[in-house]
């Protein structure tokens, strides 16, 4: 997650006295507004629970009123503190830290705790309405949706909730995966824009986990609906013969066989992102990025209009980070993520050859989601490497049996596939490998310099690369 405190506000307290409020942005969007004393309270609670040697240093108190320069200095110090806490596996994943952010989010948006109906979409556009509390965290809402669909407890961890923006053609542009430190109802309603929705989608990358999901009727139906949707939106490449075979399997209601065939197709299990800009192989290139199969796939349109394709394996990324040059807000002013003036960048350092690392930058409003994809790929690789199970990645609360819904809702079967889009095939034929492009030495961009170590996501999976992998 990308934590920042890009600005402060002078606000009036209950007694009329002015105080400085710090706007905490998560992934470039205003999450909450807090006072120094609130953050100090969080710090003291973390020290009490984990010890002074684990918790980073906190900006000291000042006896006198701060000057504007001192306010700015404290803002920078608090920003570094929040980033350090979040990136510490113990502190950042603690209930103390996450509950602080959830409470602050609810207070900032001034949404009282009450029972509401939240609409969650499935990949096929089906609406699942669940009754929740406005104060329910992401895991609570995921459990409520699973209960409504009658998804077994041991399959809940294979799925996640995502914040998406619905496009004019009915497709979805992914904003981010909803996290444990936020309240889904508050997150989506505070954007004040009906285009933003919450969608349920599988959250793993390795298609071998499909076998676990397909063991149960509801899991199979969810996976089938998602696969059909991804084909319809052109995320999975299908030629005419493959399309005929898939449609035949649909007509026979052979869902498992349909998925098995889809697994053999290019870009199965990938998330496709909106067109954006990259500096690889040269600055200003337009690119369509897809994430899947432990890689970022690039379809780059070069200045000469030639289309080239290539992939960056996550195991060859030494580290990555997200930077934002303009703060965004989703407060009362109604501004929202994705506006053209906002510049978000994902930069990763890539092992191009045995002894050569190079920075590659993607400028995209979806940079946060790209970073989340990379992190979840690494997490999944490390779990698999250690012999663990993805089932165990879903953390149960101590008192948490799933809240079962009184009324279940079936996953509707999607309609038969439309005829394949003829415009997609020539695009694939035009593509040639990026490895055929002569790579010029690219110096570190400004976005790759002058950044503290806390801004980087180190890649633990990077260390496992041997010469045979290059």
Automatic annotation (TrEMBL):
User: Can you give the residue ranges of the PX domain?
Assistant: 1-108
Q: Which family is this protein grouped under?
A: Belongs to the sorting nexin family.
GO-annotated molecular function: phosphatidylinositol binding
Give the CDD domains listed for this entry: FERM-like_C_SNX17, FERM_F1_SNX17, PX_SNX17_31
What does the protein in this record do?
Critical regulator of endosomal recycling of numerous surface proteins, including integrins, signaling receptor and channels. Binds to NPxY sequences in the cytoplasmic tails of target cargos. Associates with retriever and CCC complexes to prevent lysosomal degradation and promote cell surface recycling of numerous cargos such as integrins ITGB1, ITGB5 and their associated alpha subunits. Also required for maintenance of normal cell surface levels of APP and LRP1. Interacts with membranes containing phosphatidylinositol 3-phosphate (PtdIns(3P)).
Keyword annotations: Cytoplasm, Cytoplasmic vesicle, Endosome, Lipid-binding, Membrane, Protein transport, Transport
Please give an example of a GO cellular component term from this record: cytoplasmic vesicle membrane
Its placement in the membrane is given as: Peripheral membrane protein
Task: Give the subcellular location.
Answer: Cytoplasmic vesicle membrane; Early endosome
* Xref: InterPro entries: PH-like_dom_sf, PX_dom, PX_dom_sf, RA_dom, SNX17-31_FERM_F1, SNX17-31_FERM_F2, SNX17/31_FERM, SNX17_FERM-like_dom
Protein name from the UniProt record: Sorting nexin-17
Lineage of source species: Eukaryota, Metazoa, Chordata, Craniata, Vertebrata
Q: What range(s) does the Ras-associating domain occupy?
A: 114-205
Principal location: membrane
- Organism encoding this protein: Calidris pygmaea (Spoon-billed sandpiper)
GO BP annotations of the record are:
endocytic recycling; intracellular protein transport; signal transduction
